[in-house]
Design a protein that fits this description.
The strands form six sheets. Strands 24, 25, 26, 27, 28, 29, 30, 31, 32, 33, 34, 35 and 36 form a 13-stranded antiparallel sheet that branches. Strands 1, 2, 3, 4 and 5 form a five-stranded antiparallel sheet that branches. Strands 6, 7, 8, 9 and 10 form a five-stranded antiparallel sheet that branches. The chain has strands at 12-20, 23-30, 36-42, 49-50, 55-56, 67-75, 81-88, 98-104, 110-113, 120-121, 141-148, 151-159, 169-177, 180-188, 197-204, 207-214, 219-225, 239-241, 245-253, 256-264, 273-274, 279-283, 289-293, 301-306, 314-315, 322-327, 330-345, 351-360, 364-370, 377-383, 388-396, 405-414, 422-430, 433-438, 441-447, 455-475. A hairpin with an 8-residue loop joins strand 20 (256-264) and strand 21. The chain folds into two domains: 12-293, Tachylectin-2, Chain A; 299-475, Sandwich (Jelly Rolls), CATH 2.60.120. It is elongated. By secondary structure, the chain is an all-beta fold. The two termini are 20 Å apart. The protein is built from no helices and 36 strands.
Length: 490
């Protein structure tokens, strides 16, 4: 994990990851100044080290002398690299966002280049321009280069030239012709959102998928089409990543298709931002996108314990209606009335815990990560009837005698409820990162700093739940979250 925190806790902005020769290159904005594009490298795609900054704002009078915004890095046919990035100018007070270009031979040293008619800017008739600009500022940022049948296209966060002012957000599309890019009709204009930020595109199993980040609800959504140029449609559930994850981009990593984004704590723009580990993009049998765990987690496993080797389970509240049994290696946990917490001492700080949970009855149940003997910690509720999962921080608050509890919902999502009320789960805990998969689909992915659990297990309230086929994998301890300044990548 990585955060660009310095004087403030929210300095990391939109991210771009480019994989080359097995090394992951992270480029990101520096908030709030936007005065340079930072660069970090990684061997595993999770732990990062800062290297030479990529580019800085231009000299006074240049088209990018005010701020630099989101970028994209791509391979060139001659083995070099090009970066398309967003620039703002002091002279026009930043209201006219433009897209320019830099080139590099090694991904480390970058040189701005200005071929014919670059930078480009938003123009009619398809898009807003300086004469058709009801908001008094133009969206034209977050470029993403996509090659289709030998032709290059820039997908850009822009706005259509017509429609309700607050619904003009579109995936603006420019096609490369010689040394410049010329506007064509948008790949996507859903007439729904103010902007579609950080657009990116991928072809999977014969379908094209556009993803974009939506400012209205801080969610990553997607659209699908049978052809590159559309039309793009939505599924009834079009959220790719649960709330709090933002500015997602698709990254090619050999045969793997990764999704990187940053995470907003407290769902506030000016709160702490962290780059979590990536997830993998996949398609189900109905053509819908879903996320899987990053394939490199397996490389971090040091040792694995089977369920029969777990520490002793204890009932934390000693509820008289609660009972625990271990029958032929299968755990049975029940509490007829009220809550009971069934926990055991965790075997390492960083871990992957997985297994099969089955529920009976009409009550409540879920996973528990407990910080202390009073049950304070993280509660992951599992509604097996409705297919609803939620993580909350819940515990004692010593600072307010009139409200001496903390109860904070952190993230929610939906999963497919099986008829047998059984799911396979995988919980990854890595530093302050949480990732929960249900039936091999990532449903929760977030960062939180409130608790550091000493015990893990389950809670039950008027339910019977069982655990089987469980194992606990010890992971390497995460490196310092704040990126080091020393390059440890050869």
């Amino acid at each position: 994990m990585y955060t660009g925190s310095g004087f403030t806790d929210w300095e990391i902005g939109d991210v771009e990851v480019h994989v080359h020769n097995g090394i992951y290159h992270l480029f990101h904005l520096i908030i709030p100044n936007h005065d340079y594009i930072a660069h970090a490298v990684s061997k595993d795609g999770i732990a990062w080290s800062r290297v030479k900054n990529a580019i800085f704002v231009g000299d006074p009078g240049g088209w990018d002398d005010d701020m630099l915004w989101t970028m994209d890095v791509a391979d060139c046919e001659d083995g070099t690299f090009e970066m398309f990035y967003t620039g703002l100018q002091l002279e026009d007070r930043g209201i006219n966002q433009r897209v320019g270009r830099a080139v590099s031979k090694d991904l480390i040293h970058w040189e701005k280049t200005f071929p014919q008619d670059l930078p480009i800017e938003s123009s009619g008739p398809h898009y807003e321009d300086l004469k058709n600009n009801p908001r008094t500022w133009l969206s034209f940022r977050d470029p993403f280069l996509y090659n289709h049948k030998g032709e290059d296209y820039l997908l850009i966060c822009g706005r259509a030239s017509y429609g309700p002012v607050y619904r003009r957000g579109a995936v603006t599309t420019y096609k490369r012709k010689g040394g410049t890019f010329e506007p064509i009709k948008p790949l996507l204009y859903p007439m729904a959102y103010d902007d579609i930020e950080c657009p990116s595109l991928i072809e999977l199993k014969g379908k094209f998928y556009l993803i974009g980040s939506i400012r209205e609800d801080i969610k990553v959504r997607y659209w699908h089409s049978d052809s590159f140029d559309g039309e793009y449609q939505s599924f009834h559930h079009d959220v790719l990543m649960p709330q709090g994850n933002y500015a997602a981009r698709i990254v090619k990593d050999g045969e793997h298709n990764l999704v990187y984004s940053f995470y907003f704590l407290d769902r506030q723009v000016n709160s702490k931002r962290v780059l979590p580990p990536p997830k993998e993009l996949a398609v189900d049998e109905k053509g819908k996108l879903f996320l899987k765990s990053f394939y490199k987690w397996n490389e971090k496993v040091i040792k694995t314990f089977k369920q029969q080797d777990f520490p002793k389970v204890e009932r934390m509240y000693n509820n008289s209606t609660a009972k625990f049994d271990d029958i032929a290696g299968k755990w049975w946990m029940t509490s007829r009335s009220g809550y009971e917490l069934f926990t055991f001492e965790k075997l390492s700080e960083a871990y992957i815990w997985e297994g099969t949970i089955t529920m009976e009855g009409m009550g409540k149940c879920g996973l528990l990560l407990s910080d202390g003997e009073d049950g304070s910690g993280y509660y992951i509720s599992l509604d097996f009837k409705s297919g609803y999962v939620q993580i909350r921080a819940w515990g004692f608050n010593p600072d307010d005698p009139q409200n001496n509890f903390l109860f904070k919902n952190l993230q929610t999502n939906q999963f497919i409820a099986n008829n047998d009320l059984s799911v396979d789960f995988k919980l990854i805990r890595y530093g302050n990162y949480f990732e929960l998969s249900i039936d091999d689909v990532v449903k929760l992915t977030l960062i939180d700093y409130k608790y550091s659990e000493s015990r893990i297990g389950f809670y039950s309230a008027s339910s019977i739940l069982t655990l089987s086929n469980s194992k606990f994998s010890v992971l390497e301890n995460p490196s310092e979250e704040y990126a080091t300044q020393q390059n440890d990548v050869d």
